[in-house]
UniProtKB/TrEMBL annotation:
<keyword id="KW-0808">Transferase</keyword>
<keyword id="KW-0479">Metal-binding</keyword>
<dbReference type="InterPro" id="IPR002495">
    <property type="entry name" value="Glyco_trans_8"/>
</dbReference>
<dbReference type="InterPro" id="IPR050748">
    <property type="entry name" value="Glycosyltrans_8_dom-fam"/>
</dbReference>
<dbReference type="InterPro" id="IPR029044">
    <property type="entry name" value="Nucleotide-diphossugar_trans"/>
</dbReference>
<keyword id="KW-0328">Glycosyltransferase</keyword>
<dbReference type="GO" id="GO:0046872">
    <property type="term" value="F:metal ion binding"/>
</dbReference>
<dbReference type="Pfam" id="PF01501">
    <property type="entry name" value="Glyco_transf_8"/>
</dbReference>
<protein>
    <submittedName>
        <fullName>Glycosyltransferase family 8 protein</fullName>
    </submittedName>
</protein>
<dbReference type="GO" id="GO:0016757">
    <property type="term" value="F:glycosyltransferase activity"/>
</dbReference>
Length: 301
């Protein structure tokens, strides 16, 4: 049984459902114990999230109502809501017998089997994660230049080491000391605290938006970018690349909507969907001004 953690609020409950369905559809031979941690989730959203799992026979779901009082000591940084810190209580959401937990941001979708992730030996590392190519956040995180900066949207937690290291307290200490410079709160802190205690995963396990842009990450080379796009396992719609916004032209937008059809939110229609915006989307490609690449094929069952 593989352990999965999602954290969400009411606004992102639908996307959590889509990510859950994408995980289960693309990994039918695996069995999952899924924990969704929410703050202020409505009864309707909780019911819908449970329905996303009930139609599969390879997963069980538990919903945890997180008490906001636990967040009192954590600083409010920038535009981020404090619920971004919920994943830091991972050790409380799973029992002492659980060794490994895969955390996924709910603005991701799984588009292929990720069974190999669960076979990784974390050894004495606290976590595993995916680097952001050419990131320049080192000074902000007190991260030595010889280490790369990673994105926290996909994380494998080694719970034994997380507990031994008192991970949550170390993150809090870092944030309290650096709240004026930690622009990406827990991501900066995770980098600043655990850069020596983490494994690096392949880019395909957290393909963030720039991998699908024409002009970004070009220094990786055509061959490497093609490899990542062709073998992507987890697509991360970070930044402004939100597929539930109709005018977004991310090449995996239609895959998001394909999985949406298997959820109770299947009737969702983007507020900005219109004939005008349809023409606008098409013209961007025709005129060569669209920043996203147009892939010949996309993955996802």
């Amino acid at each position: 049984m593989h352990n999965i953690l999602f954290t969400t609020d009411e606004k992102f409950a639908q996307h959590c459902g889509v990510c859950t369905v994408s995980l289960l559809k693309n990994n039918p031979r695996e069995r999952f114990s899924i924990v969704v941690v929410g703050m202020g989730l409505s009864e309707s959203s909780q019911k819908n999230l449970k329905a996303c799992v009930n139609c599969f026979d390879n997963a069980v779901l538990e919903i945890v109502d997180f008490q906001k009082e636990k967040l009192i000591d954590f600083p409010q940084i920038g535009h981020y809501q404090k619920n971004i810190y919920l994943r830091l209580w991972v050790d409380e959401f799973f029992g002492d017998d659980v060794e490994k937990v895969l955390y996924l941001d709910v603005d991701t979708i799984v588009v292929d089997s990720i069974s190999e992730l669960f076979e990784i030996d974390l050894k004495d590392n606290v976590l595993a994660s995916v680097n952001i190519p050419f990131a320049t956040s080192h000074n902000r995180c007190h991260l030595p230049l010889e280490y790369e900066y990673f994105n926290s949207g996909v994380l494998i937690f080694n719970l034994k080491q997380w507990r031994l290291e008192d991970g949550r307290q170390k993150i809090l200490d870092f944030l309290l000391k650096n709240s004026d410079i930690a622009l990406n709160p827990d991501q900066d802190a995770l980098n600043g605290v655990f850069y020596k205690k983490r494994l690096t995963l392949d880019y395909t396990y957290n393909a963030i938006t720039p991998f699908f842009k024409k002009e970004l990450f070009k220094k990786l080379g055509v061959r490497e970018l093609s490899r990542i796009r062709e073998n992507v396992k987890i697509v991360h719609f970070n930044g402004n690349a939100r597929p539930w916004i109709y005018t977004c032209n991310h090449p995996y937008q239609r895959v998001y909507f394909k999985y949406l059809k298997y959820t109770p939110w299947s009737s969702y229609i983007p507020e900005d969907k219109s004939v005008f915006n349809y023409i606008k989307k098409q013209l961007r490609f025709m005129l060569g001004i669209e920043s996203f690449v147009k892939l010949a094929t996309v993955k996802g069952k």
